[in-house]
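User: Sequence recovery, please. Input:
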């Protein structure tokens, strides 16, 4: 019997498949990636996923039988118990039994999880949340997602929907969200929402500085951050308002979950203090004298590796 515990993490994304072989400490022994090319159909994508696993095993000279398992992070919704991906619009997938297919192919334990949940798990074991058992992970990028880690494990809920923090409603009759509701956190504080408001502001002529920065293109949340750093009042106000709502959402979640730590990742978290200052201020003001007002809110540490490492932690941690 192998004394060393190995696991493979596969991060299935809309554009890229990233795969890594890790040991029990989360150290990467081999890694590879390839384009997803979802337009070629699910068979081809699955074949490519298998090949990445075979490649990392081959590179490290490890047989599938030596694996504790293979963890797969996938866009959802999915059934984490069976590994059935119910729907992944980005990939054009409906009811794909990823777990069963991988089990058949590799004859090892397979775990499948939602990508934001696994990112939370990765941060818990290898990133900002090391030594913390209860944490709330929030990713702010094109959307807003989350992962709830309780007792070191992902809390998936009764329908694998737990952690959808992007769809808590923070503003009555607020902006329309993709989910059909109005005023969701995602419709206000995501990179997409900020870009949308910036574009509207430019149309109204509210920010000559941002207009100059963006030229003929459409503004991104990164552009808004750049303009805010140059002292642009419109951009500063837009970010402050958006992330105040993020802070309100987090304050509510703290009351529900009482975690030890909040970790914020995703591309928009790279706005750093432009995001973290209003979030922390709002949480402190909202929670007043509660012990929750002192819960640390920190930036994620794993960067682009978070998906693949989180997936691997599903089987080795
Ligand atoms: Zn929503």
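Assistant: Recovered sequence (317 residues):
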């Amino acid at each position: 019997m192998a004394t060393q515990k190995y696991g493979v993490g596969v991060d299935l994304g809309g554009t890229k498949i990233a795969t890594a072989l890790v040991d029990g400490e989360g150290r990467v022994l081999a890694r590879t990636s390839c384009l997803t090319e979802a337009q070629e159909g699910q068979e081809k994508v699955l074949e490519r996923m298998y090949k990445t696993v075979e490649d990392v095993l081959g590179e490290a000279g490890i047989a599938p039988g030596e694996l504790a398992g293979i963890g797969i992070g996938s866009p959802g919704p999915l059934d984490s118990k069976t590994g059935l991906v119910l729907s992944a619009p980005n990939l054009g997938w409906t009811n794909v039994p990823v777990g069963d297919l991988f089990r058949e192919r590799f004859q090892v334990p397979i775990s499948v999880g939602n990508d934001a949940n696994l990112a939370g798990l990765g941060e818990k074991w290898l990133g900002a949340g090391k030594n913390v058992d209860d944490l709330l992970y929030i990713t702010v990028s094109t959307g807003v997602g989350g992962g709830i880690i309780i007792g070191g494990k992902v809390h998936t809920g009764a329908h694998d929907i737990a952690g959808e923090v992007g769809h808590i409603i923070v503003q009555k009759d607020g902006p329309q969200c993709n989910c059909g509701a109005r005023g969701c956190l995602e419709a206000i504080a995501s990179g997409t929402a900020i870009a949308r408001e910036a574009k509207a502001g430019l149309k109204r002529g509210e920010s000559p500085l941002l207009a100059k920065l963006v030229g003929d293109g459409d503004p991104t949340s990164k552009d808004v951050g750049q303009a805010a750093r140059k002292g642009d009042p419109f951009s500063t106000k837009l970010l402050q308002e958006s992330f105040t709502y993020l802070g309100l959402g987090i304050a509510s979640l703290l009351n529900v979950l009482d975690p030890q730590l909040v970790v914020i990742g995703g591309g928009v978290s790279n706005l750093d203090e432009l995001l973290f200052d209003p979030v922390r201020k709002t949480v402190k003001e909202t929670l007043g004298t509660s012990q929750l007002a002192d819960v640390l809110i920190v930036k994620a540490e794993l960067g682009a590796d978070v998906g693949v490492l989180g997936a691997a932690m599903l089987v080795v941690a």
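The pocket of zinc ion is lined by residues 167, 177, 179, 181, 184, 186 (CB under 6 Å).
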